[in-house]
Amino acid sequence: MAECAFCKIASGELPATKVHDDDVVVAFRDINARAPTHILIIPRKHVASLNNLSREDDAAMGHLVRVATQIAQQEGIADTGYRLVANCGNDGGQSVDHVHFHLLGGRAMTWPPG
Ligand code: AMP
């Protein structure tokens, strides 16, 4: 989508510190990190929110989760633990309308989230 910042990061039109890039998903460091490791993992395909996913996205989303676990290994947080979370809609706190998962680690997380 022409106006989507995350589509522009995926295409290279906007800069980001990428930690993973393949033909299905891209991962980059969050510009406003909330933990020592805070990485966003997105599908290249523009999907506005989790609510808009369809069956044809199943393989991409499965791949995305597996890439997240690989990045956790790379970042050295796989053994200490981490959180993989996607915000959806207003009450979920979603601010960018392109499906993304936050990979957060490097400190103990609290529960429940605020
Ligand atoms: P959410 O509130 O779940 O939609 O998360 C959006 C996240 O995107 C926030 O944590 C922002 O800090 C992050 N973000 C927004 N723009 C950028 C950008 N250009 N590069 C990296 N992270 C970004």
Whole-number count of domains: 1
Succession of helices and strands: HEEEHEHE
| CATH fourth-tier homologous superfamily | HIT-like
Question: Percent of residues in beta strands?
Answer: 15-25%
DSSP summary: helix tally: 3
State the helical fraction: 25-40%
Bound ligands, named by name, code or SMILES:
adenosine monophosphate
Cα-atom radius of gyration:
14 Å
Major sheet attributes = 5 strands, antiparallel
Oligomeric form: single chain
Runs with pLDDT <50, length 5+? none
What does this structure look like?
- The protein is an alpha+beta fold.
- It has a single domain (5-105), classed as HIT family, subunit A.
- 25% of the residues lie in helices and 22% in strands.
- It has 3 helices and 5 strands.
- The chain has helices spanning 5-11, 58-75, 89-92; strands at 18-21, 25-29, 37-43, 82-85, 101-105.
- It has a 5-stranded antiparallel beta sheet with strand order 1-2-3-5-4, covered by helices on one side.
- Bound molecules: adenosine monophosphate (AMP).
Annotation keywords:
single chain; 114 residues; alpha+beta; HIT family, subunit A; five-stranded antiparallel sheet; 3 helices; 5 strands; binds adenosine monophosphate
In short:
The chain has 114 residues and is of the alpha+beta class. It is 25% helix and 22% strand. It has one domain: HIT-like (HIT family, subunit A).
Helix and strand arrangement:
Layout: H1 5-11, E1 18-21, E2 25-29, E3 37-43, H2 58-75, E4 82-85, H3 89-92, E5 101-105
Antiparallel strand pairs: 1-2, 2-3, 3-5, 4-5
The structure holds adenosine monophosphate (AMP).
